[in-house]
Amino acid sequence: MKLRHQNSIGFIIHHTDLKVSHLLSARFRAYDITPEQWFLLNRLAEQDGINQKELSERAGKNQTIITRMIDILERKGFITKQTDSQDRRAFLIYLTDKGRSIQDELAVLEEEAIENALQGIPAEDVAKFRETLLQIYENITAIIRETKS
Fold first, then answer.
1. Rounded CA gap, 108 and 35, in Å?
2. Are the CB atoms for 43 and 59 separated by under 8 Å?
3. What are all long-range contacts of 116-119, with beta carbons under 8 Å and residues at least 24 apart?
4. 15 and 3 in contact (C-beta within 8 Å)?
């Protein structure tokens, strides 16, 4: 696909993200898990025992979507929910051994996919690119925060 708006950073970032998601979907298909589901497992691998609201904030997705994904991951045996003793209306979400195992396995596949995508790009360029993307992310986060206040 030729980028019609190739000078638009937002367009390039968005379409690159779509391509990465498509690549990961293909690599994860045999495991019956989507990149979005795997992303939630990653957030839980960083710290599980958190509630839906916290997971939603960490994933940057609304709670309705997170609730649906939690139900799917629970049916697949990757997570368990336990009632929060502090708030009986909320659940704390934990990775199961199966969930932790698949998260670890797919992390390797994700790393390989990204390494493939970065082929031929010098390490110093990748480092600068990562630094630039993080700065863009932080700038946008600050703008959104200011808009909400």
1. 13
2. yes
3. 117/20, 117/23
4. yes
- pTM passes above 0.85: no
Query: Do residues 68 and 88 lie in contact, with contact meaning Cβ atoms separated by under 8 Å?
Result: no
Q: What distance lies between CA 49 and its chain's CA centroid?
A: 18
DSSP assignment of 9-64, as one string?
HHHHHHHHHHHHHHHHHHHHGGGT--HHHHHHHHHHHHS-SEEHHHHHHHHTS-HH
For 128, the 3-state DSSP assignment is helix
Q: What is the pLDDT along the chain (149 residues), one digit of tens a residue?
A: 555 666 788 888 999 999 999 999 999 999 999 999 999 999 999 998 999 889 999 888 888 999 999 999 999 999 999 988 888 788 899 999 999 999 999 999 999 999 999 999 999 999 999 999 999 999 998 999 899 87
Cβ–Cβ under 8 Å, residues 32 and 76: yes
